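Retry 2 of 3 after timeout on previous attempt. Resubmitting structure tokens to design endpoint.
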């Protein structure tokens, strides 16, 4: 196989941005993706919305602008009805509908749950919950197009990074499941699950961290074998053919956390009028860990049909709709997390940018600490916070970065900063860092944080909040 500067494992949000950012700066990149299309969770698990929040500039904005040129490929939604606002008529969750006239910049505001009371501040809340919706096939295709335009990215789909060879502090090569071995200078793990980091022998964490691990006030006293809840997202329509997946039979097991009170789902309207439905969540994270991925998918399929039958009876507006698509992958909000040079934690989220004092912040975010499932909770963060570059550097490695939801995050921090656009920001930073390491002939941990931040700012990445007037003006030019 030809020589590459960089191998990126995983072509989801983080991997796409890492490959694009590094290729644009001249690196030759091999992007290896296990599934048949790019986009990862955003396309294969049906997470076809980018929630509101600060940051989210740079590559995600470019992607949005390119999608906007394709008819019906994207739009901006806003929260309309919510189960907490019965005065508007009951809705089984939160309903997000397309609103013409809104712009991308309306989706880059402070997340309302950090600052407003859902019940009391209804008007302001509504105005602040705006996001981007996109067609998954258009997204996967646009990612491929943008990577192709660099002429420096080789994409291998339906291929996995299987093994890694280590020499001291360096990864010396990876072997793909096709049997080929590649020996580039740098590696980025964007597998979402930390699969490359695991193959490299990095330390990974899974489940809720005990208080003793990072001193987080909201952490449990002892570790808990439970991740954030998982959801099997589906699409309903009035216009398309039905999904042909056979409806599973059987009853809901006692373990189903919403068995006695089905409810809350997040719905987003697509440009063609279909709805994306995300039950919050379909399965509790402890049950998911117990069952494993394959059995969880089958069980969620069953629960999805139960929920839809229940909702259609109680919500007459949906009586004439039917399921036309079920995501081929389960939506897994939290996976393993890699122990990195710095671990983002609850204290960072609560300190916010003003008090964090990290010299190497490469992305900002502000989503609430949002834990779905039995005993779920949602705790807003008061201001935007930053994610340091060190959260991308697995401890003990000189030529490996991790730019996906398996980065250096505590379980609580991951519940906040897992969003797709945040993962793209991590990817963009990883790609630029690899290019700087080549240019300056240094190892990845020695990349100058100041130079990295300057380069990212030059690519319109927002590293402070509110954005500068120049950046705000840039975001208004769609
Ligand atoms: C149900 C649900 C709802 C969500 N809602 C929102 C929302 O409303 N807004 C929002 O912004 N975010 C939301 N998120 C979060 C967000 O979608 C994800 O956290 C984000 O997309 C993850 O991106 P990633 O790059 O870390 O991983 P992924 O997008 O999962 O990409 C990882 C890729 O790596 C590939 N891979 C894995 N192992 C290998 C290997 N060994 N070799 C090669 N390839 C491999 C996988 O096939 C996958 O394509 C939601 C998540 C879930 C699950």
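Retry 2 succeeded. Sequence:
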């Amino acid at each position: 196989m030809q020589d590459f500067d960089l191998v990126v494992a995983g072509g989801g949000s983080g991997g796409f941005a890492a490959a694009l950012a590094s290729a644009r700066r001249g690196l030759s990149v091999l992007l290896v993706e296990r599934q048949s299309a790019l986009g990862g969770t955003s396309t294969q698990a049906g997470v076809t919305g980018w929630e509101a929040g600060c940051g989210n500039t740079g590559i995600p904005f470019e992607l949005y602008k390119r999608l906007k040129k394709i008819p019906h490929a994207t739009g901006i939604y806003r929260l309309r009805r919510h189960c907490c606002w019965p005065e508007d008529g009951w809705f089984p969750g939160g309903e997000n509908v397309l609103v013409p006239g809104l712009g991308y910049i309306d989706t880059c505001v402070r997340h309302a749950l950090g600052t407003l009371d859902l019940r009391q501040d209804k008007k302001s809340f509504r105005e602040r919950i705006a996001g981007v919706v996109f067609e998954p096939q258009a997204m996967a295709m646009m990612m491929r197009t943008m990577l192709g335009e660099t002429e420096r990215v080789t994409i291998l789909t339906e291929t996995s990074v299987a093994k890694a060879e280590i020499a001291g502090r360096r990864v010396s090569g990876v072997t793909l499941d096709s049997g080929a071995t590649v020996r580039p200078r740098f590696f980025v793990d964007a597998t979402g699950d930390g699969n490359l980091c695991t193959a490299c022998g990095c330390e990974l964490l899974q489940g809720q961290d005990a208080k003793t691990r990072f001193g987080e006030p909201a952490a449990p006293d002892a570790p808990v074998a439970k991740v954030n809840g998982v959801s099997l997202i589906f699409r309903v329509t009035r216009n398309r053919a039905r999904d042909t997946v056979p409806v599973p039979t059987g009853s809901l097991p006692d373990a189903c956390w919403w068995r006695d009170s089905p409810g809350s789902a997040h719905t987003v309207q697509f440009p063609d009028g279909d709805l994306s439905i995300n039950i919050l969540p379909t399965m509790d994270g402890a049950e998911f860990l117990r069952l494993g991925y394959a059995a969880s998918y089958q069980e969620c399929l069953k629960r999805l049909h139960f929920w839809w039958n229940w909702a259609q009876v109680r919500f007459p507006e949906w009586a004439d709709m039917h399921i036309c698509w079920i995501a081929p992958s389960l939506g897994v909000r939290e996976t393993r997390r890699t122990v990195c040079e710095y671990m983002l934690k609850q204290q960072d989220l609560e300190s916010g940018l003003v008090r964090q004092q990290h010299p190497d912040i490469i992305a900002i975010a502000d989503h609430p600490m949002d834990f779905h499932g039995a005993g779920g909770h949602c705790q807003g963060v008061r201001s935007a916070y930053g994610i340091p570059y060190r959260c991308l550097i697995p401890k003990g490695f000189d030529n490996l970065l991790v730019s996906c939801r398996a980065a250096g995050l505590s379980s609580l921090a991951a519940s906040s900063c897992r969003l797709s656009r945040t993962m793209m920001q991590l990817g963009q930073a990883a790609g630029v860092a690899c290019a700087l390491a080549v240019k300056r002939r240094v190892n990845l941990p020695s990349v100058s944080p100041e130079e990295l931040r300057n380069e990212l700012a030059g690519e319109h990445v927002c590293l402070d909040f509110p954005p500068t007037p120049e950046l705000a003006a840039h975001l208004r030019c769609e």
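Attempt log closed. Residues 293-314 form the longest helix (22 residues).
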